[in-house]
C-alpha cells in the first residue's frame, strides 16, 4: 500500500512511468480521500458517480495543451525543434500525443489541427498524403474514441483536406468538431455536413458562445468546452433520476434534496481536486507545465449531471407523452426550474484551485455511460420520445446556456439528406440562433455512428458482439450502450 502511494507522489516519474508502475487495481486499493459519510452513501447508491476516475487522482481527467505554442517553440524535453514543413509538423504532434495524459491515458484533445498544419501546406497533393497518414496514425495508435480534434471556424486548405481525408478513411478516431461562426463560409460548412453524413463527424460548436465564455478554447473528449492550456481536474456526475426518488414531492426536491446533494458532491469533488493539486505531484513533475503547454491556473472542474428527463417525469407521473419531458409545457418548464436551481446551488460553492472559472465548478450535461439503463444523458429527451426536429431544437436550446463545459444533442438523418446538405445547414443556423451550443449529426447508412458523445463503428460493435477482437477500447462501451440505451433507435429525421 505504501509503495503504491510513493509511486503516485514521486515527482521524478513521468506520467508514462507512473502508468507502467501502477495498475488500476493498485490505485483503487488506496483510500487517500477524506470522503464524507454522506457523499459515500450517495456514491454507493449510484447517485454520485465519479466515472471510474480511481481512488487516488494522479493526473487531471482532461488536459488541453497549447499545441500552437508547441508548434512555435518545439520541446526541450522531447528534443524537438520547431517544425519547418508538414512532415516535421505531423511527426512532432504525433510524438507529443504519446505524452499527453488523461483519464483514459490517451489525449482527449489533439488540437485545432487545420490551423496547426495549414501554414505548412505548399503542395496540396503532398499535404493530402501527409494528412491521411497523420489521421490514420491517430486512429490506429490513440485507440480511444474520446480523442478529439477541432477545425475552423475559418475555411483553410488544411481544413478542406482533413474533411476530404475523413470521407475517404471513415475512421472513428479522432472525433472532430468544427467551430462554426459568422466567419465560417457556407461552402466550408456544407463540406463539413457532407463529411458528417458519411462518417458522423464533425459536430458543430457555436463558436460565438464558446469563445465569449472561454476566450481561447478547445472542444475535447465528447463535447467538453475547456480553456486552451488548461483542462479539467475531474468530472463527477449527479444522477437526477435516482435522486428524485429521495424526495417527497417536487418542492422537497427543489428546496432540500437537490441542495443537499450538491453539497455532498461538491465536497467529494473538492477532495479529488485537492489530492491531485497538493499531493499527487502532477503539476510539479510534468514537462507540459514546465514548457508552458498547460498552466494550473487554467484548470477547472466539471460538475456533471444526467437523467433530467427521468427526474422530471418522476414528478409529472404521467404515461401520456404529451405531458412528459420534451413535450409538455409544464414538464419542460419544470426541467428548466430544476437546472436553474442546480446552477444556483453549484455556484454557491467555491474551490480555490478553479481560478480560470472564478472558483466555480462548471456545469456539464454528462453524456451517460454504457451501464445507464433507462436513464437519459444530460438534459436529453429519451430516445424513442423525440418530437419533431423544430420542436426538439427549441426545447433543447433553452438548457444550453447553463452548461458552458458541455451539452449537445444528436440528430440522425435519413440517407436522402445527402442530396440536400443545405437543408441541414439551415437547421444548424436556426438552432444556433436559438443559442444552441452544440449540434451533432450522422446518417442512417453511416458505419461510424455517434454513441453518446463519442464515435464507434457499427461493424466493430458487431464484431465484438460475436466475440471477435477489436482494436479500439471504446467499442465495448458502444456495445453496452447499444444494448442498454437504445442508441440505434434514435428518431430518423426525414429530408424534406
Automatic annotation (TrEMBL):
**From what superkingdom does this record's organism come?**
Bacteria
Looking up Gene3D superfamilies in the UniProt record yields: 3.20.70.20
Q: Which InterPro entries match?
A: Glycyl_radical_YjjI-like
SUPFAM superfamilies recorded for this chain? PFL-like glycyl radical enzymes
One Pfam family per UniProt: YjjI-like
Protein name, per record: Glycine radical enzyme, YjjI family
| High-level lineage | Bacteria, Bacillati, Bacillota, Clostridia, Peptostreptococcales
Amino acid at each position: 500500500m505504501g509503495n503504491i502511494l510513493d509511486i503516485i507522489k514521486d515527482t521524478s516519474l513521468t506520467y508514462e512511468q507512473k502508468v507502467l508502475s501502477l495498475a488500476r487495481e493498485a490505485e483503487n486499493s488506496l483510500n487517500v480521500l477524506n470522503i464524507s459519510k454522506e457523499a459515500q452513501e450517495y456514491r454507493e447508491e449510484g447517485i454520485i458517480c465519479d466515472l471510474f476516475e480511481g481512488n487516488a487522482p494522479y493526473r487531471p481527467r482532461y488536459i488541453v495543451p497549447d499545441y500552437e505554442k508547441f508548434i512555435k517553440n518545439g520541446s526541450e524535453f522531447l528534443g524537438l525543434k520547431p517544425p519547418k514543413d508538414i512532415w516535421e509538423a505531423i511527426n512532432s504532434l504525433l510524438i507529443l500525443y504519446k505524452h499527453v495524459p488523461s483519464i483514459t491515458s490517451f489525449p482527449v484533445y489533439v488540437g485545432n489541427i487545420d490551423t496547426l498544419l495549414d501554414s505548412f501546406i505548399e503542395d496540396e497533393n503532398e499535404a493530402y498524403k501527409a494528412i491521411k497518414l497523420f489521421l490514420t496514425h491517430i486512429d490506429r495508435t490513440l485507440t480511444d474514441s474520446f480523442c478529439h480534434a477541432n477545425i475552423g471556424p475559418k475555411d483553410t486548405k488544411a481544413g478542406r483536406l482533413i474533411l476530404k481525408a475523413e470521407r475517404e478513411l471513415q475512421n472513428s478516431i479522432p472525433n472532430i468538431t468544427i467551430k462554426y461562426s459568422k466567419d465560417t463560409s457556407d461552402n466550408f460548412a456544407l463540406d463539413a455536413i457532407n463529411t458528417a453524413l458519411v462518417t458522423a463527424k464533425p459536430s458543430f460548436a457555436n463558436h460565438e458562445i464558446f469563445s465569449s465564455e472561454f476566450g481561447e478554447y478547445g472542444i475535447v473528449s465528447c463535447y467538453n468546452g475547456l480553456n486552451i492550456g488548461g483542462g479539467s481536474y475531474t468530472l463527477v456526475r449527479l444522477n437526477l433520476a435516482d435522486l428524485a426518488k429521495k424526495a417527497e414531492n417536487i418542492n422537497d426536491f427543489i428546496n432540500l434534496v437537490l441542495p443537499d446533494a450538491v453539497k455532498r458532491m461538491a465536497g467529494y469533488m473538492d477532495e479529488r481536486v485537492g489530492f491531485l493539486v497538493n499531493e499527487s505531484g502532477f503539476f510539479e513533475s510534468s514537462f507540459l507545465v514546465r514548457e508552458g503547454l498547460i498552466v494550473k491556473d487554467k484548470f477547472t472542474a466539471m460538475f456533471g449531471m444526467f437523467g433530467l428527463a427521468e427526474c422530471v417525469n418522476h414528478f409529472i407521473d404521467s404515461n401520456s407523452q404529451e405531458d412528459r419531458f420534451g413535450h409538455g409545457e409544464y414538464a419542460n418548464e419544470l426541467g428548466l426550474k430544476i437546472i436553474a436551481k442546480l446552477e444556483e446551488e453549484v455556484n454557491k460553492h467555491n474551490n480555490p484551485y478553479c481560478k480560470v472559472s472564478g472558483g466555480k465548478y462548471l456545469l456539464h450535461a454528462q453524456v451517460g455511460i454504457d451501464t445507464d439503463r433507462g436513464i437519459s444523458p444530460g438534459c436529453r429527451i429519451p430516445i424513442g420520445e423525440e418530437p419533431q426536429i423544430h420542436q426538439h431544437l427549441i426545447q433543447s436550446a433553452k438548457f444550453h446556456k447553463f452548461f458552458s463545459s458541455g451539452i449537445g444533442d444528436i440528430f440522425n438523418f435519413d440517407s436522402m439528406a445527402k442530396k440536400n446538405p443545405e437543408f441541414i445547414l439551415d437547421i444548424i443556423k436556426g438552432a444556433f440562433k436559438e443559442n444552441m451550443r452544440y449540434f451533432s449529426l450522422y446518417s442512417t447508412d453511416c458505419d461510424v455512428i455517434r454513441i453518446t458523445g463519442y464515435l464507434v463503428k457499427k461493424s466493430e460493435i458487431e464484431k465484438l458482439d460475436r466475440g471477435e477482437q477489436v482494436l479500439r477500447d471504446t467499442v465495448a462501451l458502444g456495445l453496452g450502450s447499444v444494448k442498454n440505451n437504445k442508441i440505434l433507435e434514435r428518431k430518423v429525421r426525414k429530408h424534406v
